[in-house]
């Protein structure tokens, strides 16, 4: 993959990587650090990457985030309001707090990053059936927090909603549900589910915080500047 394709590929998917890592670390500063490291590893392995396959990129990000959690430098989950952290993302993370880490990861990869079950399976290292069953359970657990009395009820109002909570909808079918909810076309869908889909839609379309985006842009420039250019720039700066 050449420089042009790499930049397009990475930056067009930077939001997905950022929100996935944030859902693991729940700390904005640490998330940016891990995404920076992900960019660097991907740049070093760019000849091995395909511009149509995000799986290896997410695997790199996942390994780095997990190592961060296990290291002494991790500060733990920080879910207080931050000026640049999307409040909808904070709400989503609050809904994930009682889920097992792997359930939260799978739900994030599907709902926010919109990865297929096959892709998620490769990223987290679990079988397809396990991913599907965990996805179904995670969706029901999150829904129960929003509407405890409505859990396992009213799913039959629309066939796609029934499939959704069974974990068997395709990415395309879930996009159809998002579209319906955003347009208010399916008034029969319970308000609880509308709230959840609106939340996923808002996060999925959100941008990385401006400060973080600038840091990542500078990181890419640094990576793609040759060693000779860096030395010359340093000499020029010292001579001024």
Automatic annotation (TrEMBL):
SUPFAM superfamilies: Sigma3 and sigma4 domains of RNA polymerase sigma factors. InterPro entries: RNA_pol_sigma70_r4_t2, RNA_pol_sigma_r3/r4-like, WH-like_DNA-bd_sf. GO terms for biological process: DNA-templated transcription initiation. One of its GO terms (molecular function) is sigma factor activity. Residues 94-140 form the RNA polymerase sigma factor 70 region 4 type domain. Gene3D superfamilies: Winged helix-like DNA-binding domain superfamily/Winged helix DNA-binding domain (1.10.10.10). This is RNA polymerase sigma factor 70 region 4 type 2 domain-containing protein. It comes from Marinifilum breve.
